[in-house]
Amino acid sequence: MKKFFATLLAAFLVIAAVNPVTVKAGGLLISPRPADVTVYVTVCDGDVKLAQTAVKVADIDEDGALTINDALYLAHEAEFKGGAAAGYGSANSTWGLSLTKLWGVENGGSYGYYVNNVSAMGLADPIKDGDYINAFVYTDTVGFSDMYTFFDVNTVEDYNGKEVTLTLSGAGYDANWNPVTVQVADATVTVDGKKSTFKTDANGKVTIKVDKKGSHVISAVSEKNTIVPPVCVISAPVKVNPPLTADTAHTAAVVLLLVALGGVGICVFCGKKVNER
C-alpha cells in the first residue's frame, strides 16, 4: 500500500511540474509561483569582464520589484571573486538608488547602465524576462567621453561558420543634448579579446567569420573614440535532449499509475517494458 501511494504521489508531481494549478485554501486563491525572470548581464571596465551571463533574478533588496539592482547584485554574487560583498555596491542618493561600486571599482559614481541598449533612469528601473543589461565603468572620469556602443545583434545561436554581418552603433547627443544613435566607423572587431582583421565601414557595418568552434565573444575597439565595448555572443549548435512536455509528462504519469495498480507500462524515455510487481 505504501508503494502504491508513493507512486501515485510521483505521478501527481510529474503532472503538477508541467501544469501548475491554482488551489483554494481558507477561501483564498493561491496562484502558481511567478514565472522565472532571466536576464543577460554584461559588465565592462575598459574591456569585457562579463559577457551576457544569464542571471535568474530574485528580489534581493525586497522592494517588491525585480530591478536592475537585483540583476547586477546577483551577477556579482555569482561571478565576481568574493561575491557581491566584494564587487558590488549601491546606495540611495539625490538621484535615487545609484551605483557605488561595479566589478570592484569605486570611482565616485562614474558608471553607466543600459537595458536593451536604452539608457536606464536608475538602478530601481524594473526589468523583465529576456532583457539585456549592460553596465560599465567610465574610463574617462573627467570628460566622460566613453561612448556606449552596441551591435544590432546580441546573440548568434547555432553558428555554423558562415559569415555574419553586424552593425556597430553608438549612443550620442546632438547640439541640444538630445540623445541620438550614430554609426561607429573604423572600429576593429575583437574575438575573445583579441583583435581581428575585420573593421567596421563608414556605416558601422562589418562582416565577420569565426573559424574556431564553440562559443565566442565578439566585441570591438576604436583608435578614434573611447568606446564601451559592445558584445555579441556566437555559439555553435548544441545537441540537447527533448524537453519534458505536457504530453510526455502525462504519459509518464499514466505509466506510473499502471505500475502502482499492478499493470504493465512502457517507459516513454527508454522504450522498455515496466512491471515492478
**Tertiary shape:** globular
Uncertain runs: 11-34
Helix content: 10-25%
CATH class of the largest domain: Mainly Beta
Count of extended strands: 21
CATH fold naming of the largest domain? Ferric Hydroxamate Uptake Protein, Chain A, domain 1
Mean pLDDT: 83
Spell out the helices and strands N to C. HEEEEHHEEEEEEEEEEEEEEEHEE
For this entry, give a set of tags.
3 domains, 4 helices, alpha+beta, Ferric Hydroxamate Uptake Protein, Chain A, domain 1, 5-stranded mixed β-sheet, 277 residues, Immunoglobulin-like, globular, 36% strand
Describe the structure.
By secondary structure, the chain is an alpha+beta fold. It contains 4 helices and 21 strands. The chain starts with a helix and ends with a strand.
Summarize the structure.
It is built from four helices and 21 strands. By secondary structure, it is of the alpha+beta class. A five-stranded mixed sheet has the order 4-3-9-7-8.
SSE layout and pairing:
Layout: H1 2-18, E1 23-25, E2 28-30, E3 38-45, E4 47-56, H2 68-79, H3 83-87, E5 89-93, E6 96-101, E7 111-115, E8 118-119, E9 132-137, E10 147-151, E11 155-156, E12 164-173, E13 179-183, E14 188-191, E15 194-199, E16 205-208, E17 216-221, E18 227-228, E19 232-234, H4 246-260, E20 265-266, E21 273-274
Parallel strand pairs: 3-9, 10-18, 11-19
Antiparallel strand pairs: 1-2, 3-4, 5-6, 7-8, 7-9, 10-12, 12-13, 12-16, 14-15, 14-17, 17-19, 20-21
Helix pairs in contact: 1-4
